[in-house]
Every structure is written in C-alpha cells, then in structure tokens.
Design goal:
By secondary structure, the protein is of the alpha/beta class. It has two helices and eight strands. The strands form two sheets. A four-stranded mixed beta sheet has the order 1-4-3-2, covered by helices on one side. A four-stranded mixed beta sheet has the order 5-8-7-6, with helices on one face.
Length: about 120
C-alpha cells in the first residue's frame, strides 16, 4: 500500500450548494471550509468529500467521451424509489435508469449513482 484514501475532491463553481447537497445525500457534516474549499465527512481525521471552487466548470455529460464523467460517486441505498424521491427533492436530475442502479446529476452536473442489490 502506498497511501490511504483521504478525499474525493469535486470541482464546482459554487461550493456552498454542492456541499449542502452531498451533506444531505451522504449524512455527513462540514468539517472545514473557506471561500474556495469545503470538506464534509464523518470527522476531520476520516476520509472525506471536498468541494473546490473553480472559475469555469465544463460539466460532464453522461455518457460521453467528449465530456467525460471525470468522477462519480456510488451511493448504496435500500430502496431506489424512496432514495430517488429524496435526491430529486435535493436538486438532482435524472440521467439514466437500470434495474439495480440509477444515474443522476448533482446541481453542478456531475453524475452519481444510487445502487441497490
């Protein structure tokens, strides 16, 4: 092993709504933040999700090699229908549905999946 997972960093133009979206989606809390960077997680010393402000984001398009995903998060859920209702209420949009997973776009256009099996 070379190292340990520290954080998934997501570029976005407006970090506040993105951090709030993922806090609700993942049940995490804000552990640090300033005008250009917000980190959420279970605790300051644990792996986290971070949001880094960029001036101009070219959002990915799922699925497309021309505008690749760049990253995505898989979120395991017990009930896809209930979880879908909740993420749509948070501001996600639908992108693709399958029997065991559904793809959504977060408020900045990054894809993420709800998975169940």
């Amino acid at each position: 092993m070379i190292g340990k997972f520290h954080a998934l960093v997501i570029d976005c133009e407006d970090i506040e709504p993105m951090a709030a979206f993922y806090q609700e989606l993942l049940g995490m809390q804000r552990v640090e933040g300033d005008a250009d960077w917000i980190t959420i997680g279970d605790a300051a010393d644990r792996p986290a999700v971070a949001f880094q402000r960029v001036d101009k984001l070219i959002p990915p398009q799922w699925p497309s090699a021309e505008h690749p995903q760049q990253m995505h998060v898989d979120v395991r859920v017990d009930n896809l229908d209930k979880a879908e209702e909740q993420v749509l209420a948070l501001g996600a949009t639908k992108a693709h549905q399958d029997k065991t997973f559904r793809v959504y776009l977060d408020p900045a256009g990054h894809p993420f999946c709800l998975v169940s099996w």
